[in-house]
Amino acid sequence: MVSVSDDHIEQHSYTLNWAVHMCFNSKLFSDVTIHLGGIELPAHSIVLASQSDYFKKALEYPMKEGIEKKFEFSEGSMHAHWRMFEYIYRGEYVLDAAVPLGSIADDEDLLKDIRVYELADYFQIENLRNYAFQNFKTRIKTLWVSESLIDCIREVYKLPSNVSYGMRIEIAKIARKHLVDLWDKKAFRNLIREGGQFVIDIMKDIIADT
Amino acid sequence: MGSSESKQLPSHARAQTPEPLHFKSRACGSAANHSSQPNGPGGEGADFDACWNMIQEALRDIHNKSCGRLSFEELYRAAYKIVLKKKGEVLYDKVKEFEEQWFAMHVIPKIEVLVTKSLINIGIDNSSAASVNERRQTGEKFLKGLRDTWEDHNMSMNMTADILMYLDRGYTQQEPRRVPIFATTIALFRDHILRSCLNANSDSLIVDILISVMLDQIDMERRGDVIDRNLIRSCSRMLSCLYETEDESESSKLYLTIFEPRFLSNSETFYSRECDRLLRESDASTWLRHTETRLSEEEDRCGTTIERETLPKVSDVVDKKLILGHLDDFLAMEGSGLRWMIDNDKIDDLSILYRLISRVDDKKTALREILQKRVVELGLEIENVLKNTDFSTGQGEGEDGGDGDKAKTLNPAAQQTAAAIRWVDDVLRLKDKFDYMLEACFQEDLVLQTALTKSFADFINLFNRSSEYVSLFIDDSLKRGIRGKTEAEVDAILEKAIVLIRYLLDKDLFQTYYQRHLARRLLHGKSESHDVEKQIISRMKQEMGQQFTSKFEGMFRDLVTSSELTSTYRDHIRKLDPEGHTIDLNVNVLTTNYWPQEVMGRSAQLGETPRTGCTYPPEVKRLQASFEQFYLTNRNGRKLTWIGTTGSADIKCVFPAIEGKSGPLARERRYEMNVPTYGMVVLLLFNDLKDGESLSFEEIQAKTNMSTSDLTRALMAIAVAPKSRVLAKDPPTKNIKPTDRFSFNASFQSKTIRIKAPIINAVSKVEDKDERKTTEEKNNQTRAHIVDAAIVRIMKARKELNHSQLVSEVLSQLVGRFKPEVSLIKRRIEDLIVREYLERPDEDGAPSMYRYMA
């Protein structure tokens, strides 16, 4: 056994990372095709399987996807899907709309992270879930004023409580902080009127303060 | 539908087949139990039904192995949607219900047909009429059926669980009472098949039948049949994938809870019977080989047929039943047991035995005890053979008994030497035997090595002449044994000698003998090589320490100084008397303490007043005076004592022609004789005698003032020994009596000019009974002093000690020199109290205390 220097290991993982980084949206060595709406995204089974159990199983079993090496996603935000695949290859995603999806409207800024977060949950990519959550936390500090905050709350509370717990706490905290300003908005008052777990979380916050 | 090996046991059977892709462990979201809000518009019931119908169809397809048309994404999303709609619980129960029904309709019937009457009998009665072959086929058919069903079920449940992955994530994980869907569905196999009876004619559970069949197959293999190992292994894998409860804790694997205990108890019975049978029908050698084969078979079995984790346990069963079961009986077997192996050097048997015993006993007690016993027995046998051997013919009986013609009668000394050499050879041969055994069979095991060394020391020290014999062996080697030998051969002899010395407990006794024998070799020029002498002394020094060899080294130093002294004295005389008329003197100045007391003229016999020296003739006296003057010039305060008993003299003698005789006697004969110094003193008396006159023993003694024994020995050399009988004795017997008369033997003749009269020594080479008693008594006296010194040294340092502490400290101080009797230590303590070195403090409660008196 030859002892390997840290430099050597670093060099190795750097080249490997870079190769995977460069493969995003590249036909080179591609063995899987992803259809996002009408857009095709070439992909690589080894990369997908390494990041997500969903893809690992789907590519392993002799079902349609495993045989045809083809995935079709039409539900939800295509831009969020794009960002997820970008993350799978590059460990990050950008907020600019992806050029190939030019014809499809991008998500509202406040919803971008939330929707990636949802997909990270669906495809079971834990790191991405954290990454999106952190991005969201930074972004909402300034973007809470956005009209889409209400949609944001609805989407988060739709997810199972155990997977969205942290996100719920964060969003309830922001809502509580700007409660007075938000109350002015009709959409917000409608949300409160519907009741549900979000109202309970807000109330918990208020009671804790008093 | 793929059915390659890697896909037969996918993800959930993780302990058995690692997944080909394993980038990260399955993530678990931070679970917190929040009650959920009622959500969304109505119409979800229809959504649920649509999703469930799709999933249900898919489950059926999966069971039927036709999933090529299924979309993983669609199914996964269907389950996802159900979970988001808070219908996870319903889905979970529906899946479970579906699988139970499927199981009842499609799986159980397949197994039921396999459970035949002859199959059930396998577990109960193996001696039935069914032949082994039939039984094996019935068993194999059942195992195969069960295995195939299990593998289908396992694969289907893995796939199902993966489609429903989000069910576990979004629902099961936040329900403490739920286990993953896979655990629930895979367990159906355990509950509905293994734990069911499935046959009206029997109340045996399938799992019991399964295990019975597996064990039956394994037993068949143990009896020499060929079985389908992979089939058995598939079944043991199945039992490893199923657990007692849905918690799936590692220790509750069915393999561990049900199979393994029965396998082990079955093995116990099997090997217990086998051991009994071997004891009845075979010998120890067969038993050893068979046991080793069995051990390797079980190892093989754990690697190929059942699970590897069972290996230590089943090996333990073989160890306990087959090795320990009748260990002592096998070792004690006549004609093949351990004693027989030892006596016949059965290297292979002993090696196997060692390996087996090492498995069951670190201390190797059974092996060690018999080995030790045998060593001592063989050692005592050497002594017995020695006792019953007549060495007087110069040859050991065993070696060359028929060669009686050549054999001449040996004198007692030579007989003892022969016995000593025989003893040493035999002991060393015995040691070689066990050394070889230790290396070739016992892997140089330290425990056994220590035990063997102890046993050798035991029997060697049981033999009361061991110290003397070891010294005699070295004596003989250095006088004759090393002649013409290469350096390596000499080295081997030295090594043997050292080995033997190591065993001796009474090293002081050996020291005494060695000193005596060495003195003889040196003073009489009998040593073959002074280099070798020095080598062995330096080895002893390494082994026993400086103190042990200081006297021997002193002896060598004396000789070196003496030879220098002799030559300077010669130069000195040559200056005074250039003509060279004086007697040529060669002198050895011996330091009193280095040399044996006997040599130094101190009597060997206790109680007898020492009488040394004699009245030397005037010319000798003058010579002595001249040397003393020369010697003491530079060495003030020394005292020289002349020891005639160890010296010799070269004399010229002239025998006049005898008239009337023919042949040599008619001529004058001149001879050069080497005689003992005292012989020379006696002979000189006859120079002054007239022809025909004689001297009686008493007259000679009166004139020379020699002790009776010295004179007797001197006369033996010159009046009895046949080749140097220059004095005639009356009567001409072979003994010297005080009444004998001696005269010049005018008709002496010799074929050689130079004649060497034998040296009849004061110090006999080997001891008779009395002499040895004397040696021992003297040794005991010396020991008393050494013990005294040790006691005083210890008490001076410790001031106060109780009796047993003191005794044990004395014993430990004297290790390497000798082992004193406790009674001796006791006596010395009493003596020291009387001499007021020690006292008993008069304190209550400390009756056995001693205190040092400054």
UniProtKB/TrEMBL annotation, chain A:
Coiled coil: none annotated. Residues 30-97 form the BTB domain. InterPro entries: BTB/POZ_dom, SKP1/BTB/POZ_sf. Signal peptide: none annotated. Transmembrane segments: none annotated. This is BTB domain-containing protein. It comes from Trichoderma lentiforme. The lineage of its organism: Eukaryota, Fungi, Dikarya, Ascomycota, Pezizomycotina.
Automatic annotation (TrEMBL), chain B:
GO terms for biological process: ubiquitin-dependent protein catabolic process. This is Cullin-3. SMART domains: CULLIN, Cullin_Nedd8. PANTHER family: CULLIN. Gene3D superfamilies: Cullin Repeats, Cullin, Chain C, Domain 2, Winged helix-like DNA-binding domain superfamily/Winged helix DNA-binding domain. The keyword Phosphoprotein does not apply. Belongs to the cullin family. Keywords: Isopeptide bond, Ubl conjugation. Residues 1-20 are annotated as: Disordered. It comes from Trichoderma lentiforme. InterPro entries: Cullin, Cullin-like_AB, Cullin_homology, Cullin_homology_sf, Cullin_N, Cullin_neddylation_domain, Cullin_repeat-like_dom_sf, WH-like_DNA-bd_sf. GO terms for molecular function: ubiquitin protein ligase binding. Residues 465-719 form the Cullin family profile domain.
